[in-house]
Structure formats: C-alpha cells, structure tokens
Amino acid sequence: MKKTKKHLNKGSRERPDENYFPGANELLEQAFSITSKVSVSRRGIPPIKVIRRLNALKIQTFGEFLQKKLTDLAKLFPHLERLDPFYLDLIGILANTPRLKTNLSNVSASARIIKRLRFVYAHNCYTAISISEANSALNAYQGRVSSVMKKLGPVLKELKVDSKAMRELPAIDFDAPTVVLAGYPNVGKTTLLKRLTGASAKISPYAFTTKQINTGYFEHKYRRIQVLDTPGLLDRTELNAVEKKALAAIQHLATLIVFIIDPTLACGYTLQEQLSLLSHTKERFAGRKIIVAVNKVDYATEQELDAATDPLKDYTVAKDSELEGMQGQKVREEIAKAL
Predict the structure, then answer these.
(1) Matching fold, domains 24-166 and 178-338
(2) CATH number of the 24-166 domain
(3) CA 49, 55, 58, 62 torsion: positive or negative?
(4) pLDDT tens column, 141-170
(5) What is the Cα–Cα distance from 47 to 39, expressed in whole angstroms?
(6) What is the pTM of this model?
(7) Which residues, 6+ apart, have CB-to-CB distance to 236 below 8 Å?
(8) For the OBG-type G domain, which residue ranges apply (predicted)?
(9) Residue 81: exposed, middle, or buried by beta-carbon count in 10 A (0-12, 13-18, 19+)?
(10) pLDDT in tens, 22-61
C-alpha cells in the first residue's frame, strides 16, 4: 500500500514542544544549571582523580545538553531538499530560502563543533596532572562553547520566527487527487465545499498571508478526493507578489479545477466579470481540466441560466440544485468522471 504523505512537520523523532523555541542565552543558562548539579563519588579516591572525573563529566553533560537542544530545534524544520514543490513555494513566501538553509546549516555545524570540542577537553581533563589544569580544561570548554552559542544567537532568533510560521502551513494529502475551487466571492464556494465534503472541511491559515485555505475530503468508490478552497487567491484577476507565489504553490497540487458561477448575479459580479475570471483561471491552470459548476439554479430564471451556460460550450458544466436536495451531487459526479 502506498504511504500517504503527511504534514511537512510530522514524523520527526523525539521532537521538542513546537511552541517552545529558546534563544542562545536561555540554552546556555540551562546548560550551566544542569552542569552545576553534577557530582561524583569522592570516597577513597585521590582529589586529583575526583576532579578529573567530575570535570570530565561536567564537560560531557554541558556539551551533550546543548548538542541535543540544537539537534531538536533543527528537527522542527523539514529537509528542504525532500519537500514537495507545494511546500517549497510556501516556504519561499515565508523567508529567504537560502538564508533558511544557511541558518539550519549553522545550527548543525555548531552542534558538531560542540561535540568535537567536548572530546578534546574531556581528554585534557583525564590527562591533567593537577587540579588547576583539570579546572582550566573545564573552564576553557565552557568558554569556547559559550562563544559558539552567542554567535548562534541571531540565527536562533530568525529560526524562531520561521518555525512559528511553518507550524501554520496546511496539512496536505499528496496522494489524493486534488480539486481546487475557484470563482468570485459569494458565488457559493464555501457552500459547495461543505456539500461535497460534509463536516470534514477544515480551515487553516495559509502561506503567511491574511488568506486561509479550506480543505475537505470525500470518498467516491473507495477513492479519497481532496477539495481545496482558497479565498482571496482564485476569486479575482489581480494578485500581489505574495499572493502570486501562494497561487503558484496551489498550481502544484491542482488535479482538477471546479469554477463556480452564480447565474443570478446575487454575488455582486456581472456574468461578464465571472466569465473573465474563468478565462484567467484557465490560463493560470493551463493543461488542467476545468468543470464549471453553475450554482443557485433553483433561483435563476431560464434566461439567466441560458445566458450563463451558452458561453460554456467548451467546458464540462454541472448545474447544482439546492432546493431539489442534490447537495452537490451533479458536481461530485462530474468530478468523479474527470478523475
């Protein structure tokens, strides 16, 4: 059975609390606090050996704590090279992707430096010929590691912001065929989403904009079909730079477009405006099949229906009837045929 991909932030092992992202100074304070509690047996052991063991253990504790914390923080982020293009485009909206890669690389490199220095100074402790030399090894290690962490401070601040934004990315099923709803506001996209998917529709913040993405699923002949509604992206012709990038991400997902038209014009947009947006949508999703769902047919006059459907001879058209209890059935049937 093919394994379904999950949200990009799922699956990491021993992940820390995603809402907690400490800075460099806080991590150092924690490391010093934990190290101060380290002790070893002193009974019957020469003082020099006690200090060697104690300081070597403190070096190990101090270093391993910071190594693990840095590794855990890095796990809050996905491997960018393995991401689906959908997520890569969204991350590109969040931040400068090369900067993000560099910051993550710096965190990993710092963890490696801390580990390498740990072995060096622990060895110096074990081979120290005096108590002062063993103490110097501990102090030198903590000093060098503190310097590494302080240099990492600005990096961790940037990553904290990036991590918070990435937790808001929508969870997408990449194995399911994806239907994207389009059309002007108030034509009935949200209503159609609920009719198609029932109570499974979920609203998530989308791509570091003020937009949201509404997701839902329905089953057809044991096949799971994903439906997306993206308010503010596919309901007008003009988009700003950030919205264009968010739209590019959606273009990676779309298997099929369902464009909704309101023939009654109650949505506040003329038929010509709606047809113009349909043309723009066709250009944006070149090569994707488009189904036009004529909504609110119960309330439309015969003349309004004719005016809406006559220009659609090149499209598959599904008329959705609310009063007859169709509840999106015609649209669902056409989607199943197209997929």
Answers:
(1) no
(2) 1.20.120.1190
(3) negative
(4) 999 999 999 999 999 999 998 888 777 677
(5) 13
(6) 0.71
(7) 184, 277
(8) 177-339
(9) exposed
(10) 999 999 999 999 999 999 888 888 999 999 999 999 999 9
Q: Which residues contact residue 282 at a Cβ distance below 8 angstroms, ignoring those fewer than 6 apart? A: 290
Which token pair is 184?
A: 């002007």
One CATH from 3.40.50.300, 3.40.1170.60, 3.30.460.80, 3.30.870.10 for 178-338: 3.40.50.300
Q: Is the separation of the CB atoms in 178 and 228 below 8 Å? A: yes
Residue in the structure block whose two tokens are 């310097």: 147
Q: What are the C-alpha distances in Å from 12 to residues 1, 3, 8?
A: 22, 16, 10
